[in-house]
Design a protein that fits this description.
The protein has 342 residues and is mainly beta. It has three domains: 23-90, Immunoglobulin-like (Sandwich), CATH 2.60.40.1120; 99-179, Immunoglobulin-like, CATH 2.60.40; 183-338, no CATH class. 5% of the residues lie in helices and 43% in strands. The protein has one helix spanning 2-18, and strands spanning 23-31, 36-39, 42-47, 50-56, 58-65, 72-78, 84-90, 102-105, 112-115, 124-131, 139-145, 149-152, 159-167, 170-171, 178-179, 186-191, 200-203, 210-213, 226-229, 241-244, 266-270, 279-280, 289-291, 296-301, 307-316, 321-329, 336-337. The longest helix has 17 residues, at 2-18.
Amino acid sequence: MKKLWLLVGVVCLGLLMCISPDTGTIEITSNPSGAYVYLDGDYTGKETDCVLRDVPFGDHTLTLVLSGYPSWKRYITLSEDQPDLDINADFTIIPAQVTGLTAEATTNGAGFKLTWEPAENAETYKVYFRPYDYYYDEELLADGLTTTEYTHANPEYTGRYRVSGDAGGMEGPKSEALSTESTPVRYLEVCELNGPGYSGISWDVLTGFPASYLMADETYQDRIDCYFTNLATGYTDTPYYLAGADVVAEDEGNTWLDPDGWRAARVSDPVDFHIYEGGLAPAGSYKKYTEVEEYETYAVLTEDGYYALMYVEYIDPGRGEVDISTTFQPIKGSRLFSGEYY
């Protein structure tokens, strides 16, 4: 009986020895040596050059930290087909910082195409993004890019982008942040066309700042994008309309302005979001003028292809005045606007 149990034990041991373990090894060298080795964020207690044994099959993050150098990181996989890995990290090949990062709107105006200059020693590139609302952390959008461009097709939010180069797991310093945010919402008091004050509205494409001008002063004719009008003489009649500046050529309330030479901005009906929430301005259906109401947000498409939002806060037809809040997207063709955070 004892011999039978002994035979069973030997057979079981043999079977166990035939079953492949679900672990592998990682042999790690570095130039220079002496780097601290981290696996999946945990310090292994080892320094290069070294061997990690009994590493479970699956996906892992291997990080090497060497004083005086950027950290080295690589994503690795151990499996039955590849149970052993040889890793060599060269800390002396560090990609230079990415420069020349720029953004332009995608064709439909909903996203952004990023481009940058090639970085010395970089083999691939990583793109990072942090939404305008700083409660969000920076996230890795793309890794392993072999070209110096990336399209963020539908980001939903404006924010800030950074790009870094990578060479064999060695990530170089990130670029300076590039913002796609719209300007902060600003308050402005303007008048109806025949009101007692400034009625022409414009946005500076370099600063995004709004401004108001006397439409009677021809010096500013090539700056004014839009204005408020009741399409009648005087300013007490309602409703009021938001109109592209060139509408003065057909505006029955215009009895004194030269009808020629005005900029042809176009305006939308009320958008489906509040100016302080941010969102995507309409892609189409812009027209010469639209009736406005208090507490509604409207989009403006300038003659130069820039977008702005305008929120009508208060209309005082007795004084011919309109109080508005406005924001401007400084990236030409982009319809995406930040919210207003506090």
